[in-house]
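All the exercises in this workshop are built on plain-text protein records. There is nothing in a record beyond a sequence line and a structure line. A learned vocabulary of local backbone shapes supplies the integers on the structure line. The question running through the whole workshop is how a given chain folds. Here is such a record, shown just as it appears in the course material:

***
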Amino acid sequence: MAVATPAPPGVLRKIPLRPRDEREREQARSAERELLVRYHREGDVAARDELIERFIPLARDLALRYSYTDEPVDDLLQVACLGLIKAIDRFEPGRGTKFTSYAAPTILGELKRHFRDKGWALHVPRDLQERSLALSRETESLSKQLGRSPSIREVAMAMGCTVEQALEASEAASSYEAASLDAPTARDDDESGSLIDMLGHRDDSYELVESRDAIAATWHELPDLERKVVELRFTHDLTQREIGERIGYSQMHVSRLLRRALRRLENAAEAA
């Protein structure tokens, strides 16, 4: 007994049984051709609705190819149904082409456009998007075949691309979804912090801004000789003896000048 599958709202009322022998299949294909002719040549809308019902299983099977993604299956089925409707509307019965041969690429194209245009949180080039999706498919397939997680080299070989291209596709996959900074870090813990709490760190240098301003103001108030001694000591890294030789004072006098200047700068910083 066939089991009815829930249909997308507003699109299906029922899903017909699939033919089980060649005679029934041929009868089904003949009925489908007749429906296509009735719709395209006679404008029979009822024939269009019946075609949609007949080919919903095809749309569902193609949509489920992307069930490995994070997109809800119901959304995928809706997109596939949209592709099916476009295929029915654009099909030309007079060409003699099998409808399913035309419908399948049309539905898959609609699904790919959905992922390209609406699924990615950040802009990623189309070829890189498709390579990223292919990487996910091949990784899942190889995992089943090998019974373990495949290496990036094995996945690249299966995809027919270089390891660098596979790595680029893997990195691009992180652009598919964007997490909110307010999202909790743990799903099961109501008291867990948010992602924004984990970003950045305390910058103590902000507390030094006022001290720097005060020191700068005091620096300009120092006598020229004291500023020169401090500059030679800490900018040019001269010893007190070398400074004394440079300015014509004894080392002891240089030491007193340094202590006096640094004490004034230190007091200014503490008072800020």
